[in-house]
Amino acid sequence: MYADVEAVLRLFQNFLVPMAETYTHDNGRSQLLLSLIGTVPIVYQSATYNIPVAFWLPTSYPSVAPIVFVTPTALMLVKAGKYVDISGRCYHPYLAYWSNRSDSNLVDLISIMQGVFSQEPPVYAKSNVSAQQQQQQQQSSPTLGGYPSPTTSLRPAPPILTYSPRAGSNSAMSSSQPTGTHQQQNRYPSSTTFGPSSQQLTPQQAQLYTKLQTALLEFNTASSREMDNLVTVNKQLNDAETKTKDELQSLRDLNTKIQYNIATLTRCIDQLNTKIEQIRTWPEEPVDEIICGSSVVHNQLFELVAEEIAIEDTIYYLGKALSQDKVELNAYMKHLRNLSREQFMKKALIKKVKAQLGHVE
């Protein structure tokens, strides 16, 4: 937003002024928005005119298109056309498809509106009778102490286009181009010195006009400074809003993952509890009855092998006890002979059973 406004003010510094004013939407909601108010120059029938306009920038700009209005003065009327309705609201395909284009900007919009207004001016002057009555009312209005009355405008009206239908032909648009100093007053001046001629003012009015002009310049300076601060704050708020939305979306994604993991863990815990309950309901089986042979001979072979392995372990631990002087040699030799004899008998019996079962070593 700041870059677009700066570019517009650089190109139209004598025509558009930034202001912060309250805008009322069609639904009645009021909102403080940044606006560019003033005129834009156009060329119509080889003459230059200034069209009074107002550009309102929504808070979500540049994602949302600006709101453009033609703001006629007291001596003007809006001419409804293809791109302007009777209320002065401006429409154009560039505005309608603003969000579909990534390069939409305010400078191009003003250039497009200048081209549209040059082909079909959106304002025309009131009738001469109405203008004369208004001038007479302004001249006859009382003054206080030599100062101009509040109804007297110190700022000249933008150029006026007179709309005069001709008999026997189509309606035509012609520009009122008076001569002399009157023509210069109808044009919007290109410099900051504007207002009624000093020759038409009394000394008191000239002094008041000078004070008003000084106050206006001070107000414009303060407003520009305040507007820069507002634009900076608005940019910071927009950045903070974007960051907040991103962080909120990250938290939402993390919450979704956590909820999914919780649901998965809960499902697995339920399955494990169900399986544990099933195992607890199983009857206890005697291990000695489960680990056995398929016949009497196989059970005998199983017992012989177990006894032979037990004798082997006993001999091992006797030798270990002898080496540590925990068993005397005579006792060791006595038990070793008995165990060896018994082990030999077990091995012979195991070999005989295996031969009976058909196992060949």
UniProtKB/TrEMBL annotation:
Region (Disordered): 126-204
Swiss-Prot/TrEMBL keywords: Coiled coil, Endosome, Protein transport, Transport
Biological process per Gene Ontology, one example term: protein transport
Gene3D superfamilies reported in the protein's UniProt record: 6.10.140.820, Ubiquitin Conjugating Enzyme
CDD domains documented for this protein: UEV_TSG101-like
GO (cellular component) term, any one: ESCRT I complex
Identification of the protein by name: Tumor susceptibility gene 101 protein
Species annotation: Mortierella alpina (Oleaginous fungus)
